[in-house]
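User: Fold this, then the next.

Assistant: Folding the first:
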Amino acid sequence: MFFKQSLQRKIIKGIDNERMVKYMSLTEINSLGFLFNINEEGMLDTIKRLCELADSRSIKFSAIALNTLKQPYPKDILDYRISVINKQDLNYLGLPKTPSTEIFTSQGFNLFIDFSSDYNFTCDYLSHKSKSSFKI
């Protein structure tokens, strides 16, 4: 376990992410990216409300839902702008193997929100890789 964690720390430290950091007020946001653990209690209600809010304000958004359970989560249940990463989509260290994560992290969102309540290496990795100008 210690070996795996030390490799994960090296990966996080090795991320070269040049981005323009800029504070924005909520009224100026026109693109939003967010990341969440689909297995957390009450998370789907929160995400549904956030999607409705973004749509009502004409904010373009994209999201990644992380499923940490062994049983795959059906990918067609959520909004079409939300990609699901199941445990099978991760390698031994927790790095995503799907190309959708590279597309997601390369987008320059005005605002990026990580809704993870507990530490998760995959969420940490995607947050560090994100090129968003303002991260929460």
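Now the next one, as you asked:
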Amino acid sequence: MLKIHNKGKSLGNFEIQKGIFSYAKNDWKYYLAGILAMFAGVQANLFQPLLIQKIIDEIIIEGNSDNFIIYTLGIFGIALIAGVFNYSNRYFNDKAAEKTIFNLRNVAFEKLQHQSLQYHNNQTRLILLRELIEQYQ
């Protein structure tokens, strides 16, 4: 497990998550939309077995082929609806993550820009990156 230290103290996972959450909470609408789309996609996928059961019971076992087209179109329609919800889930979660990363990047660059030129001349890239991570937390 990667341990990140902040001025001699080891930070736990929850402390790191709290820091990141403070930047992600501004985009809560996108996260909520992604979660709702995920639940809707799961619920839509739960109806497919019911239609398959109807096809097996009514068409194959009983031999009544009157509703075959309706059940088949129902299966494709449910698959289409579930696909739209799954796509929406990925879209909203990716959009929220992109905004959060953009906010984190802006904070990191702002901290680097306010350092003195002498500070940058005396430090190597690895040390600068490590100190930037420590300052962020």
